[in-house]
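agent> fetching stored inputs for the zinc ion docking request
agent> found them:
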Amino acid sequence: MIKTSKLPSSIKRIIFIAVVLAFFFGAGVMAGNMKPINSVKIAFPNNHEINVLTTKNTVQEILKENYIEILDDEIVVPNLETEINGNTTITISKKSETNEIVALASKGEDIPLEQLLNSYSAITEKIVVEQIEIPYETITKDIVSGKANTTEEIIQAGKNGLKEVTYKIKYQNDVEIERQEISSKIIKNPVNKVVSVKEKATVTSRSSTSRTSTTYTAPTGSLASLVEGITPKVTTLNTSAYCACYKCCGKTNGVTSSGKKASAWYTVAAGSAYPIGTVIYIPALSGKANGGWFIVQDRGGAIGNNKLDIFVGSHSEALQFGRQNLQCYIYMF
Ligand SMILES: [Zn+2]
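agent> prediction call returned; pasting tokens
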């Protein structure tokens, strides 16, 4: 620091002039580099407004300078790239609101022209190709009319198809406002689901006397009550009969492969597809001892899955039975 008090007054004056000149020179240099200062009003969706002074050029820069972020559902007018010249207002609004403005205007509401133009200017059109699933249809066959107790079997599984649809879509501020289908072509046809409705084999337990099915006489018995609620597999099996004799079994003790002693018109030998304990109802044999109810308790070397061997009381009974193709209701647990 220069101690001016000790200097002669002429030097003081020179220093003063130099300082003044330096000030103006400096100010001149600054003015040369200085950007114009704009006063900008920023309006927010919640009707708040702020006024800022800025030397920035574009809307984006001004917002950034003020730590303002535009959210996905917001729109800014004028747009981010617009250069600001002079005093202006930057309006941030919700996209949904600008669409509302258009809607209100079309209802005859008095909307300021500038606001309305801004809302309209954002409408764009795009051609969009979309793949759309074609839902399959369900076709029902063999409808048993007037029967309450039915069972459904899916014969063919349904598969959705696929089509390619070309739309012309109008967007307003990135929100879809109108969609027009231009063309459509099928890529994959749907496969119908086919369901067969059949009358359910109804099992009536010992305690009940109600009969809801007329397919066959509802049987009674302990095996019948075991399978209540289970949907049987209905199939025709090649059925024969056997007894505990040496000719039939190679032994005479009457003990089955399940370890249980065989009972006439109760025990059956079946193929491996039917586990020990599987209950089988044969309507054709409902007049027999157990009302046509059998349980798989035995196996046999020659008994495939399409065969069934029924244990009977004597060899003559077995011979008399012979071979019969019989409809069987098979209940597996
Ligand atoms: Zn025998």
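agent> quick read of the result: Residues 202-331 form a domain with the Barwin-like endoglucanases fold (CATH 2.40.40.10).
agent> awaiting further instructions
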